[in-house]
Amino acid sequence: MTTDQAGLFDVPELAPLPNARRCEAGLHAALQQATKDGVVLQLDGGLVAAALVAARALDRAEALPDKTAVYAVAQLLPPFQRALHGLRLPAEVGPVSEPPLPAPTGGADGVPSWLGDAFGTAE
Hints:
The protein has 123 residues and is mostly helical. 50% of the residues lie in helices and 0% in strands.
């Protein structure tokens, strides 16, 4: 991405730093493709900037001494991931669906029998 591009990335603060590390470089590559595909729009500029700040913070955290880096990355990764999901990078996927629960078996009032076994029945 260059700062002379029209649209979202003509903001100088969003241009990649010359010495961008893994997170920032990966974010810029994803944003470049997402912009080309129409996934990220001009309206996403604020969240793009926030994701960029988070990526740079993760890159700095990774360079900390071992024990400190582990805690810093653990703290920074969830907000960065939420920003990526907010930008649909990638689209957030849910867990594998579980099979549906069996239909409750119970009395005529629809209360499952295990409730009556545990708590008694209404008089």
